[in-house]
Amino acid sequence: MRFTQLVSKTLREDPPEAETASHRLMLKAGLIQQLASGIYSYLPLAWRAIRKIESVIREEMDAAGGQEIMMPTLQPMEIWEHTGRRSAFGDTLFSLEDRRGRPMVLAPTHEEVVTSIVRSNVQSYRDLPVILYQIQTKFRDEPRPRAGLIRVREFDMKDAYSFNADEESLDQSYQAMAQAYRNIYRRCDLPVLMAEADSGAIGGKDSHEFILATPTGEDTVITCPSCSYTANAEKAVAGLAEAPAESAQAMEEVSTPGIKTIASLAEFLNITEDKTIKAVFYSADGEVVLVSVRGDLEVNEVKLKNALHATDLRLATDEEVKGAGLVAGSASAVGLNGIKRIADTSITNGANFVVGANKPDTHLTGANYPRDFEVDVLTDIALAQPGQLCPHCGHALEATRGIEVGHIFKLGTFFSESMGALFLDNEGEQQPIIMGCYGIGVGRLLAAAIEQNHDDKGLVFPIPIAPYQIHLVGLNLSDEEVAAAADKLYSDLWEQGFETLYDDRTDQAAGVKFNDADLIGLPVRLVISPRNLKNGVVEVKGRKDAEAETIPNDELFTRLSEILS
Q1: Using N-to-C axis directions, what is the helix angle for 44-63 and 167-187, rounded to 10°?
Q2: Which of the residues 68, 358, 383, 500 has an alpha carbon 20 to 30 A from that of 43?
Q3: Which domains does the chain have, with CATH numbers?
């Protein structure tokens, strides 16, 4: 590709709307163009990189036994209502009506459709296992699109689905997909963490995310450097140091005028926050719930939502809190009835807590569970934090920021049972097919790779997913001899199998061309100039290298092969 023919143009200034490095650099280097909030066009350089990622994905999915299909994005609403997922996805589901007034969906995912395909084509255990996959455009009406391709409303995704006769077979498919994902990221030169995760609105049990570590990531991963325990913060479990043993005291009221927060309560009473129990109010599917957690911890809303089996979970409004008879700033489960009470297991680690007295400006000291209060549900609903203890080895946990670039999980039989996808087992009995689901956001993977691979000059493309391998820069192309040599080298590079972008502009100075080469970030830059031509050499510089080297013309292709290998 010649630069003078390239549709996209580079920018000299940083785009003011860019939020992250990948967003800024993809706009500045001319890889993407925004049409509306969360909706982007892939320009030629980005699309070439996307196609390379897709090629790697297809090769690994096929090697793992996957069969590629293509399913419709436009789907009838009735299949989403049939499985109950219309309400599960809520406002993120794009909906419309066709000309006959029938409600339709722009699909964010394809479990219903792929299950209907298998229902029609699998009758016996002899037809299983099956792995189907596609690379397809999907839609989600994100409330806050951000960071370019990281969180968008229209996106490209590889989703795969496994169908198995039993749990053992499902586990084999799951492990095969996990290995395929590891291969994909390795081949794309992207180091990832495989973290235990929550399955989200789609449901399921065993679940893992693949996280590309970067400080600007929107996900937090909790890791143990000792035993390699790794989990998304939404899923992570942490142990607490055992609280010192102490005799249970009697409860006493204490006046706490104007005290509304745990921090101010601890300061007022000259205690540490872990000697308090925090009360938080939520609305779970319209029902106000009192949540109790030790004062030094935070509520994990994903765990809470799962524990309550809630579809819609949010903090309760002031009006809802008052309507439930609760006293904000001085509430607790002590003596409280007529409201659902759920507590984190941390309230069992310690004694003589300070809790709200359920009347204004008053707290209770010496509160102990279960002597002084009861709860309806006692389970882990706390957010794991760095410094807490690994649940497996007891080592201090650490936290890493990152971007999710893949998600795999076991769906079980929810879709097969609700949609009648059954098979005859070896005894002639009908059984529901057991499913797994495996997704990779292709555009997000590209953005994540850029987020991790850039410097102050621009992109630093990993070799396997770079749009082109070589950035050929011709200097003083008004000199006919130099122009002819550069044109010949450009042709020879392609003939030798080196994908090359040729900066053939005659109206730009050398500094502009070098800046654009650094901004676009292809793996290798070649420079042909009058001086190099006279000396029979070509200047070669790896994008990650500090200095360039001069290579004799007859050794150039060998050297390029070495660099790009």
Answers
A1: 140
A2: 68
A3: 3-236+399-451 (3.30.930.10), 252-379 (3.90.960.10), 468-564 (3.40.50.800)
